[in-house]
Write a structure and sequence with these properties.
Elements (H helix, E strand, L loop, with lengths): L2 H15 L35 H8 L19 E4 L6 H7 L4 H7 L13 E4 L6 E2 L22 H8 L2 H4 L1 E4 L2 E4 H12 L3 H12 L26 H20 L5 E3 L5 E3 L6 H11 L4 H7 L5 H9 L29 E9 L10 E5 L14 E2 L4 E7 L2 E5 L10 E6 L12 E2 L4 E3 L13 E7 L2 E2 L14 E3 L8 E4 L2 E4 L9 E3 L1
Parallel strand pairs: 3-7
Antiparallel strand pairs: 1-2, 4-5, 6-7, 8-9, 8-21, 9-16, 10-15, 11-12, 11-14, 12-13, 13-16, 16-17, 18-19, 19-20
Helix pairs in contact: 7-9, 8-12, 9-10
Length: 506
């Protein structure tokens, strides 16, 4: 039998048997002969070495990422009229109605696509796609999420091995001088995106990981997104991580109906891909025209760079990411008993807008609104070990194994440096975490931002497994930061300020 075919059949059998799955905190599965991540690239035998693109594509069709296809809406067949409202852009209108931007411009005889008027009536033709997205699965879900699959991955060691531009890069972030590896780790932690994927995409876009002298134009914009507000590695990677999350969580919520690319062309959704792949597809649509996009999400694109670095992506799969019938542990509100705080933020992004709406916000009593020091205490919502405490963030591992990517973890944000709990401290429910503040991330007022993750995945506060604390159940209605807390016949509204309508007492 052909050696390549035999190898692929063996891989398929391993994947389908399920025996590749590591336990929580275990090292990622390695096929014998591929070597570990601590070895150099020269020492590691690439599992895809010598395979053709067709071989790799055939192997990918046996991925251990079973997922039902999403349900797509029935295509619109009628022509519509639409009146422009404040805040509209032609691009957003085209995306909403699944019409390519050039076609919308042509049908309406628009001379300047950057200038449309409120009240202007546009003719919206039926959808017409320039392409269909491929069904090729690029990575398993656990390689997009900062998950158990990479809990023991050493970013610094890998970057040093490659000895590219990233290995000597330094940048000031929040008044701290960080190395390239530290920036990768920080973005991976904040957004809960897999650092291996960040490294692969960064090298695919700019060769920063492997080339000592990458293209000059990439030195300011290493992801190739040219926006003066997002210069430097930290902001470029954060922008990319947010769009990876946007694709991942939007796919899981079944709200993606078409892909609009950077050149305004439209691609029809292929409903059989998995959320991890959708994250990459979504990011790359912002960076490429149709032909570049199709290559980036094929076996020759990000998949090939990832495979060269870390081996076949599905070797690292940790599944299922979210078990059936998962239950939330008993949680309490994150402030001390006898105090009354304000419910200031309904379901919103765990970190930035792209992640699941995993977070809720609570502001302490007494101080005027704004970024004022507070002597109130944020307390632990459950028993668990503190595994991270820096940059305004505290992560509590509820499993107690010291690895936040396994099982349940609680993310507390905007925790003041003053008297903040130290790493290695075990807290019982109600023990003090620190004082609420504006530290870390973006904040216009002193508060605590609290969110849940399971196996590193953000869990929506008002989803199928609601973020229940002391019996209060979050209820959203599709507007970020808005919503309610409901407990029996009591209802509190999320408001940006203090009011009897959002006062909550423990």
């Amino acid at each position: 039998m052909n050696k390549k075919i035999l190898t692929l059949l063996i891989l398929g059998a391993i994947f389908l048997s399920g025996c590749y799955r590591p336990g929580p905190g275990a090292a990622p599965f390695q096929v014998s002969g591929t070597g570990g991540e601590g070895e150099s690239i020269d020492q590691r035998e690439d599992i895809t070495a010598g395979f053709t693109d067709n071989d790799i594509t055939d192997a990918a069709s046996t991925t251990p990422t079973p997922n039902p296809p999403i349900t797509l809406p029935e295509p619109r067949v009628e022509t519509l009229e639409y009146s422009v409202v404040s805040g509209d852009t032609l691009r957003n209108i085209a995306l909403r109605f699944q019409v390519s931007l050039p076609r919308l411009i042509a049908v309406n005889d628009i001379n300047n696509p950057d200038l449309i008027d409120v009240g202007q009536v546009l003719v919206i033709p039926p959808p017409e796609f320039d392409a269909v997205a491929p069904s090729f699965k690029i990575i398993p879900d656990s390689e997009l999420v900062n998950s158990p699959s990479n809990a023991d991955f050493n970013v610094g060691a890998f970057v040093a091995q490659q000895n590219g531009y990233l290995a000597s890069y330094v940048e000031e972030v929040d008044d701290l001088l960080l190395t390239g590896s530290e920036i990768i780790e920080r973005v991976a932690l904040e957004y809960s995106v897999n650092p291996r994927l960040l490294l692969a995409i960064l090298d695919y876009r700019s060769q920063w990981v492997t080339d000592r002298n990458p293209p000059e134009e990439s030195l300011i914009y290493p992801m190739g997104f040219y926006d003066a507000r997002r210069s430097g590695l930290y902001k470029q990677l954060g922008w990319a991580a947010n769009l990876l999350n946007e694709g991942y969580y939007s796919w899981k919520a079944n709200v993606i109906t078409a892909w609009m690319l950077a050149d305004g062309s439209m691609a029809e959704v292929e409903p059989t891909i998995n959320p991890g792949t959708a994250g990459i597809v979504n990011l790359m649509r912002y960076l490429a025209n149709l032909s570049e996009w199709e290559r980036a999400i094929s076996a020759e694109g990000v998949f090939a760079t990832y495979t060269e670095f870390f081996g076949y992506p599905f070797n690292h799969a940790f599944e299922p990411m979210i078990p059936e019938n998962l239950e939330q542990p008993l949680l309490q509100l994150p402030f001390e008993r006898g105090e009354t705080w304000s419910f200031t933020g309904g379901p919103h992004g765990g970190w930035n807008s792209g992640s699941a709406w995993a977070a809720l916000d609570f502001a302490p009593p007494g101080e005027p609104m704004g970024c004022q020091p507070s002597d109130a205490w944020v307390v632990a919502s459950a028993p668990g070990l503190i595994v991270y405490s820096d940059h305004g963030a505290v992560i509590q591992d509820l499993e107690g194994d010291g690895i936040w990517q396994t099982g349940w973890s609680i993310f507390y944000m905007h925790i003041d440096t003053r008297e903040r709990v130290e790493v290695g401290t075990y807290l019982n429910a109600g023990d003090r975490v620190g004082h609420p503040s504006c530290e870390g991330g973006f904040s216009t007022g002193t508060h605590v931002h609290i969110a849940r993750r399971y196996n590193g995945e953000w869990i929506a506060a008002d989803g199928d497994l609601p973020f229940v604390m002391d019996g209060w159940v979050p209820v959203g209605y599709g507007v970020e930061y808005n919503g309610y807390l409901v407990k029996g016949d009591q209802t509190l509204e999320a408001l940006n300020g203090r009011s009897p309508l959002n006062a909550i007492e423990r």
